[in-house]
Amino acid sequence: MNKINKSIRKRYLIFLASIIVIIALMLSVVQNSINLKKSDAHIINVSGKQRMLSQRITKLNYIIKTVEKNDSKLYVKELKSLTREWEDATNYLISINEEYGNKTIDSLFNIIKPYQNKILKYSKEIINNTGSEQVIKDLKALESADLAFLTTMDTIVNEYAKSADKKLGNFKTILYLLAFIVILILIFQFFYIIKPVYNLYFLKNQVLEKTNKELLSSQEKISNNLKELKLLKDKIEESAKLGKIFIEQAPNAIAMFDKEMKYIAASQHWREDYKLTDREIIGQSHYDIFPEIGDDWKQDHKECLNGAINKCDEAPFKRADGTTQWLTWDVRPWYISKGNIGGLLMYTADITNIKEKDQEKLRIEKILDNTNEIARIGTWEVNLITGEVIWSRVTREIHEVPKDYKPILETAINFYKEGESRIKIQKAISIAIEKGTSFDIELKLVTAKGNIVWTRVIGQPEFEDDKCVMLYGVFQDINEIKTTENALNFVNEELKAILNSGPISIIGTDKNGLITHFNQGAETMLQYSAEEMIGLQTPQIIHLKEEAIERGIELSELYGRQISGFNIFIENAIEGESESRQWTYVRKDGSKFPVHLIITALRNNKGEITGFIGVGTDISESVENQKIIIDAKNNLEILTEKLTSQNSQLASFAHITSHNLRAPVSNLNSLLNFYKMSETDDEKNLLFEKFEKVINHLTSTLNTLVDAIKIRDDSSKNIENILFKDVLNKTKEILTGQIIETDTNLFGDFSKAPSIIYNRTYLESIFLNLITNSIKYRSEERAPKIVIKTTINNGKIQLSITDNGLGIDLNRHGHKLFGLNKTFHRHTEAKGVGLYLTKIQIESMGGTISATSKVNEGTTFTITF
Amino acid sequence: MKKPFIICIVDDDEIYQYTITKTLETHNLSRKVLMFSDGEEALDFMIENVANIKDLPDVIFLDINMPIMDGFQFMEEYVKIAPKVGKNITIYMVSSSVDPIDIERAKKISEISDYIIKPINSKELAEIVSSLENNGQI
User: In chain A, which residues have their Cβ closer than 8 Å to the Cβ of B22?
Assistant: First the structure.
């Protein structure tokens, strides 16, 4: 079919290609004939024109002949150009005709040529010799030649038209031919292409009809078959149903597989055992449902499918989820008919629970054995009828007898130490036998190796017909426990003695703070009796209330939550096991004393707090001693401060000497050198002036230094109570002139501290210096305003002097503000002495001076006395 | 013959100003002497003439102890403008202070060539000037 389609397509393509070729061919033929027609028309045209030209030439020659020689020039010129055009056209026609190849026209051209040459020759002569006699002669000749030329040319034109007609006829013939060919091709194509296609279609239709018929008949057959099949199916289903019911409702885990190990049926029990109740397994492969089944089992199944029977009482089934199922199983084939295996029947039972119980039992036995070993517990049995005694391994070990030792009742009792222990056991056994009473006693035992061991013996009689037939029980080595217990008792006694001796208070509380223990030391120290405290009070009663509250605030801040009441004492102990700090205890009579208290949290073995214990030591004496040490330390600090200050003053003296005394001295040296070299008196006088200046400067510096030293010496003398108001008034008096002159406003406010015990001279000097400074360094832009004020800061009197003057750039000059001869303004009066002396005076009295300032806003000097 | 240097004196001590000027004149050690009474005046001059090489000094003799702006303060400011100064200026710290603190402090400033203790005599001065000349620093 495909092949036919392919060939049809091929044929169709050929058909299309041939049509295209034919159209192209026709187009080219038509184009060619049009071209030919065009050239024919052109040639006929040119020939016609030639006729016209020759007539015009003749006409012109006549005109030339008739007009005057002078006027004829213009016509001659035209004749010239006409002659050239005529000549060119003639040549063109001749050349065309050579291509054209028409023999009739060729011969006609041969006839015309002599006439043509004649016309040309005569025309040229006329042009060259206008107006001569010869011209007239020539004209005649020309006339005859022209006539002949015209006649012949007519014939030529006719001949051309005839030839064109002939060509048209040819063209028509060609077209008819082509049309015929096209029709031929189309007919051929019809048979070659359309016919086979049609045939094909017809064939197909026939086949289709046949198929339809067949289909109809087969449908009937199928519906018949279906009916039979349904009947069969119902039968099968019925029997399968019963089989399925048998398997599904079987009381065991049972499953039926086909040969591919796909489920045919499975009991509900099976589904439950393997947790398959929520999924459909019928039709699915056993191995898809249990991907965890290993190759060994698969091999077993294969063997069973070949007729083997596989049974197992107990085997683990490692499930994909990690659990282990213990199984017992029976796998065997089922037969469709004799010797024809249809698949497998698998019966399994989940014995995991039984297995686990078994294992649990084993494990408990093992643990028990280990426990006995560790706890040193053995068992014993006395058969009173046979007199047989059975000891367990541990019992034998406690007795330190060999493994194969066989005791009897009498020898067994003889192991107990003679005296109390042996009497006790004998008594216990006889009571047990007589009255059926069990016993639990602790006894001393002498082992086979002669070691004395504490043992615990528990015995239980067994009666049959009111007669004791057996005694059995447990036997434990309690030597270690007994020894420890004894040691513990001893330690306890010892501790008690320690706790109650000496001036140490030991107070125990439960976790809520209720006192559970109050030792003798506490009783003596705090005057409360243990009876008054235990179970009734919390330690809050013996603590100073204010102190506790203060500590509570502290702790609340530290931990970021409210801490109060009893928690104040124990919070740190809870966080960090124990806390040690100083507290104040209050006795019953209200008197107080300092204690060093260590509070420890008591914890059980799980780490839970069960209570607290506080151990307090009276530290009244050591507090006293501490005070003395602190005082001594403070004194030392003051001394150090003084020494440091003196040291810095010494250093400042060294600095002054270096800067302020060496400078003038070096100047004196230089001047002296010049003086030695100077020649004239004028020079010498000039130098003397300089000497004087230096010496004056030196003197004043030395005076200042002497003043400073003096201040340091007698600073502690002459102190008296002075009113600040008085000092200010005196200063005002001294500076009256300046104050008026500069329009200075002075304000004093001494309400906070009106007076001071101080050296009067110094205080006056301090006021004078600082106020003078404020006036001296006033701003020109505003009237000076000075505020003098006293305050009390940290118990010390402070004096501040604030002005609204020029201010000082303290970043730049702060370090030398109080230095000697330091100045900070280009001010003629600046000498740099006042602040230096002021500072020395203040420091010699134990005070300090500092300054704050803003340039162009003012300065504040603050003196702390 | 006059040396071709501009020497700058920064010192508030009139007598020193007088003696050093006289020494420089007597020994023809300088072409020109610039005199400033404190650091600020000197600094202002330097800033004004920062690009004016021919007016800038070749050597500065700088005192420590001065009002307004002392020698060390001047150095702090000078270091900031130094990269813009179009001339390599040699600076000597000249002070009457023999305080080791001052000397150490001066030595730590790399722009300071040496620390000279007053008084400087003419011989020393001449040596300094000629050593600068030999080193081709000027």
Answer: 674
